[in-house]
Amino acid sequence: xxxxxxxxxxxxxxxxxxxxxxxxxxxxxxxxxxxxxxxxxxxxxxxxxxxxxxxxxxxxxxxxxxxxxxxxxxxxxxxxxxxxxxxxxxxxxxxxxxxxxxxxxxxxxxxxxxxxxxxxxxxxx
Length: 125
What we know:
Blueprint: E1 5-7, E2 10-12, E3 18-23, E4 30-39, E5 46-52, E6 57-59, E7 67-72, E8 77-82, E9 91-104, E10 107-115, E11 119-123
Parallel strand pairs: 2-11
Antiparallel strand pairs: 1-3, 3-8, 4-5, 4-9, 5-6, 7-8, 9-10, 9-11
């Protein structure tokens, strides 16, 4: 079974920082891109940040200059450093791996999208 596992969410005050981690499927898989989405109650899921296999990042306009996405290549992991958190940032943050190809326990995957279950970020004073 191939999966993504997130961690690092929590409660912070406005202006605080958190670092989210997503453990990927392992280095034997090829992945076109990885990223972080967020989903708040009553709102659509939105892309926060993404990074290509070559390390090129992209950010939502609302988080530019505050969030930094990075890759860990040993197990195709991805991280999101969140600084200067604001009242509009609380949400369930979900890790995504796009275009996943490889094999786990005899099961083959090609061009699959993988999602984590989410890690909750709360910003409150």
